[in-house]
Amino acid sequence: MANNNTLSKSINVEYLSTLWMLIEFVVALYSGIMAKSILLIAFGLDSFLEIIAGSVLIWRLKKEVNGAASETIKKAEKITSMLVGIILILLSIYVTITSLLNLFGHGVADDSLSGIIIAILSLLMMPFFIIKKRRYGKILKSDALIEDSYCNVTCAYIAGTVLAGMILNALFGFWWADSVAALILVYFIFTEGLEGIKGE
Question: How far apart are CA 92 and CA 190, in angstroms?
Answer without folding.
Answer: 6
